[in-house]
Structure formats: C-alpha cells, structure tokens
Amino acid sequence: MSTCRSTTASVTSGLYSSSGNKGGELVGTSVEEGEMTQSRVTLPDLSQEIDQVFAGAARSLDQLLARSGSVGLIRVGMEALEVLESRFGAGARAEVAANVERLVQTTIGSEITAQDRFTHGLGVQDEVVVMFFRPIGDRDFFDRRLPSLALALRKQVEKQRQQLVFPYLRPAPRLDVGWGLAPHNAAVRASRTIAVALEQARQDARIHAEASELEESRQLATLVIHELVRPVFEPIVHLPSRTIYGVEALSRGPQDSIWESPAHLFGVARRAKSLFELDVVCRRIALRELAGRIPASQAVFLNCMPSALLDPSFSGHTLGQTLGACGLHPHQVVIEINEQESIQNSELFHKAVHHYRQVGIRIALDDVGSGYASLSSILDTRPDLVKIDLSLVRSVDKDPAREELIRTLVKLAHRIGASCVAEGVETREELETLERLGLDYVQGYLFTRATSLDEALNPAVLERAFG
Fold first, then answer.
1. Is the Cβ–Cβ distance between 448 and 430 less than 8 Å?
2. Mean residue pLDDT across the chain
C-alpha cells in the first residue's frame, strides 16, 4: 500500500492541537511579547483527493465550512482488507467494503443530515469516512453525540466483523474506528481542515485498537488461567456403514459471549502469542470430558499444534498415563494437525508425528485444500487420515472443479494407505456426491452442530442425514 505524502503548511488557528501522529505535529498559533507567530504543520496532504471527492457537490467544502465553522469526522479503516484482495480479487474486496458501508449507514445513518458527507476512499487509505458539518457552537454534538456515535459504530464493527468478511477470511481482521474534529479558519484551505480531522480520527483508531488488543489479551489470560473454555463435539460418520465412527473435540469460550466464537478465541490467542497455552488447556478439558465415556470401538479426534509435543502431560511416558486416566487407548486417538502448521513448523511437526505414531496414535492432516500445498503435504506427511477442508466440500454437488479436486485428493490418500474425511457437510446433495467420490468419513452440520458429547454420540444424528 502506498504511503501518504507529507507537506508543510501554515495554520493560523490555535483551537486545535495534535501530536504523535506519523504525519507530523499541529501546534497552532501562539502570542509571544505581543507578536503573533505561526507554527508549522506536517500532515498527510489529502487536499487534492478531498477536493476531488467534493468536486461535484452542490456546495463546495469552503461553503460548508464557512457556514459551520468546524467539522466532526468518523472513519472506519479498511487497510486490513488488502490481504483479501490479494487472495480473492478486487470483487471480494468491493463486496466487503459495501458490507462495511451498509453497517455504517445502519448504525449512525439517522444522524447524517443533508449538509453532511459520506464517502469511501478519501485520500490514499482505504476507509469509509462520514463528515459532519455542524455549527461550531453545537457543544452537545461535539462533546457528546459525536464520540457516542463513534463508540456505537466501533461496537457494531467489532461485533459483526466476522460477518462483514464472510465467507472470505477467518479469523476476521480488525477494522478500526476513530473520530476527530477540527475548527475551520478562513485563512486555511478547507481541505486542510478536513485533513486535520481525518488524521486525528486515524490516530484515535490506532489508540483504541492497541487498547482493545491489550484488554483482549488480558481476558484471554483469564480464560486460560481459570480454564473457562468448554468442550463441544461433532460426530464423525463412517460413510460406507452409516455409523458413528467417533467424535471430534472442539473448543468454545463462555456461552453467549464473543469468546464463544472459535475464530475470535483462537484469533486473539494467535495475536497474543498464547496459542500453545490455549492449546494445552483445550486438550486437557476435552480429555476430562471424555473420561470413561467413549466405547473402545470409537475414535477421538483431538486438534493439536505440533508444539503439543512440548506439553509434559501429552508427551513421553506421561502420555500413556494421561490417556489411561481417561479410559482411552492410544489406537482410539487421532491427532489432527493443521496443514499450514505442518508447513510452518515442519521440523517440530515431523518429530510430533514420529513420537505419536510410536505409541499407536494416528495422525490426521487437517484443513487440506485450504492452503496451496495440499498434495505435497500429504506426500511429505503420509498421514493416517486426510481431512478435506469445508471450503472444498461446500457446494461440491454443483461445482465440477471442486468435485474433480476432491476425487484427486481421495485417490492420493487411498494410494498411500490413508482414509479421507470430508468436513463441513451441510446438505444431502453434498453427502450423496461425497459418497459417490469414495469418501470414507464425513462430518458437518447436516448431522448436528457442535454439541454435547451425549448428543454427538446419539444415533439420532444419523437419521437427520440419511432419513
């Protein structure tokens, strides 16, 4: 992404000051010994871009600011969506940007009047901007309503950020919201006044983002310390016999909280560099829930990072004791390791595979098809099971390309002696197609959403899919 150009300009207003921003510092005027001196300002020069946005407006910026004497501004930064365009194209980015614009309109649209302006793409940064041209004497708006609007929008963006980028990105990137205001002086270009408010809003967004990330890290630490993560389970169905082969243990945060979303839970853990600690707790709680409740004929799938090898309770001689205390035999346990983890932590991954196989635990390569190295990962790993990602399974009955790719993965898996599991099956049509393609196992919402262990093991889940 290109960076903002900087320029130096004179400002003859001492009503506003800002420091610490990347574009420079606005100090304003000062009076010393009866003489007025003008300080210097370095800010991103958005003047031309801002003027272009308003070129076709009924009233120019000068007219708007001459009447109001000030501007309040709220912006939603979408710079984080650059990765979306690089992976899915400009159309996907435009779709998500439209989602953000609709959310802004829905949340604060009632406060946008005829003299205000709503725009996307003000300057060189990708952001949605709302400009409020209100009389400088409207203290209620600037002191109370403007910050309240920004807070309401910030909460909605955070609450819905996963829906905003669906189905492209998981976990969803943070979209930062900030607000700013600036008085207007007739000696200064109108577009410079907007630039001052905009840079202030960007700085406000950065500050809130950092504070939010710090608070999330603290909340995550509390969840881990007090083991407030809860286990849920999905049945894994043996397709040829149409029986429940076993369950996959998954993790959720406290019910009815933002932490209930696994994307949020593990996204924060990744950002806070606490994935290992969360991984250990999730596994411990799942095994505690499974203790003595799984028949010897059924399997337990556990999601693990390669670094699980470093967990004292899940490696070495202690591993057998841990499983024995839960009433599990090693041959019942399948360790799922994400395809991307196997690539990024290759050396540790291969050590883990060797270690677990020595004690009789099987290895599943998870989320195959979500990355770019699926075929080579299968050949390098030689897993016991290959789990095909739901992004390939979705609508496979309607997409010949997906069907052909899954057929290739199934053939390769069977050729090296591995079984194939399809994740995320949601319709009977998908199920019938997967059965025709030779899948060994399936799981997904067609049977049940992640639920309690008793529900996951209940044969009634089969009736929902097979009738």
1. no
2. 85
Residues 338, 378 contacting (CB under 8 angstroms): no
Give 186: exposed, middle or buried? Use CB within 10 Å, 0-12, 13-18, 19+: exposed
What 8-state DSSP symbol labels residue 209?
A: H
Amino acid, res. 417:
G
Distances (CA, A) of 300 to 107, 212, 361, 409: 45, 36, 10, 23
- Domains of the chain from N-terminus onward: 6-212 (3.30.70.270), 227-466 (3.20.20.450)
pLDDT band at 173 (very low <50, low <70, confident <90, very high): confident
Cβ count near 404 (within 10 Å):
12
Give the pLDDT of residue 373: 58
Residue 242 scores a pLDDT above 50: yes
Distance separating alpha carbons of residues 105 and 154, to the nearest angstrom: 13
- Bond from prior residue into 167 cis (ω within 30 degrees of 0): yes
What does the angle CA 352 – CA 317 – CA 382 come to, to the nearest 5 degrees?
25
For residues 154 and 143, the answer to whether their CB atoms sit within 8 Å is no
Rounded (10°) CA dihedral 182, 187, 190, 192: -70
pLDDT at 29: 30
Q: What is the CA radius of gyration of the chain?
A: 28
pLDDT at 371: 63
Q: How confident is the model at residue 87 (pLDDT cuts 50, 70, 90)?
A: confident
Question: Using an 8 Å Cβ cutoff, are 258 and 312 in contact?
Answer: no
Total length of the chain: 467
pTM value?
Answer: 0.74
pLDDT digits (tens, 9 = 90+) for 250-268: 999 999 998 999 988 998 9
